[in-house]
Amino acid sequence: MKSILDFQEKKNLKKKISMVTCYDYSFARLLASSEVDCMLVGDSLAMTMLGKSTTLDVSSDLMAVFTEAVVRGAGGKFVIADLPFMSYRKGLTANMTSIEKVMKAGAQAVKLEGAAGNLKLIRHTVDSGVPVMGHLGLTPQSVNQLGGFKVQGRDEAAQRKIKEQALKLQEAGCFSIVLEAVPSSLAAEITASLDIPTIGIGAGIDCDGQVLVLQDMLGMNQDFKPKFVKKYFEGADLMIKAFNNYHNEVENGKFPTEKESYS
Ligand code: KIV
User: Fold this and answer.
1) Contact between 178 and 133 (Cβ < 8 Å)
2) The pLDDT of residue 224
3) H or E element at residue 25
């Protein structure tokens, strides 16, 4: 996918959208060679790439560095960059400076979490020519307010609120909304009520698309096994095996051979 028009077209044609998070040039090149529709430079990089326990400690400057690397490898495939924690809650000028950084790094759209207090900024951003993806349900930047990384929208009041927020994000001009960790029935209802596509993670089969964190889908983190993740590759096992093969060959004098040596 090359533009936000492709997102809408896929929804209209009832074709599913696939998105994977990406944080570096090498994986962006692999994703660019795949059929995956688009890449998200998620602020989850705080956890997957930097080993932090939440997504809170990332700056716009850091997001711009990772975004630039991904865009360089993405071969023109659509790249969305997350706006980090607090970077869009500081008043219009500071917010726009943060958006400018990731857009100038090459992103084609930004994603921000939540609706309350963000609608005016979303309208201004869209009017400034920057497509905005929303994010509702489990919004990891609010982990302290939510009391942990928990499924959202379990009761009727919470469901009503998320449905209302989705409509408000659409009205404000979002071109798509991520729904994270909400009951499948709620995600299905929201998806049917919106003109714009929803992209789910832990939100069931009825969303217009799906997103997974790259390290999760490639099975690179042996300690992380949440219900919503499906492993498409035994990355940790296979890579550790490769590291061990290399180590043993070095230790036993089997690497390098003539083939890997200069005469
Ligand atoms: O940062 C991220 O990886 C995300 C996805 C989980 C949607 O926001």
Assistant:
1) yes
2) 87
3) helix 25-32
Q: If you take atom 5 of ligand 1, which residue's CA is the nearest one? A: 42
Convert the pLDDT of each residue in 52-61 to its tens digit: 999 999 999 9
Q: What does the pLDDT read at residue 261?
A: 98
Give me the chain's average pLDDT, please. 98
Written as one string, the DSSP assignment of 128-181 is TT--EEEEEES-GGGHHHHTSS-----SHHHHHHHHHHHHHHHHHT-SEEEEES
Question: For residue 263, is pLDDT > 90?
Answer: yes
Rounded-to-integer distance, Cα 69 and Cα 250, Å: 32
- List all residues whose CB is within 6 A of at least one atom of ligand 1: 21, 42-44, 82, 135, 178, 180, 201, 211, 213
Helix or strand (DSSP H, E) at 20: strand 17-21
Closest CA to 134 of 80, 188, 77, 203: 80
Q: Which two tokens stand for residue 258?
A: 């003539």
Closest by CA position to 134, among listed 108, 166, 171: 166
Active-site positions read: 180
Q: Are 80 and 40 in contact (CB under 8 A)?
A: yes
**pLDDT digits over 87-141, tens only?**
999 999 999 999 999 999 999 999 999 999 999 999 999 999 999 999 999 999 9
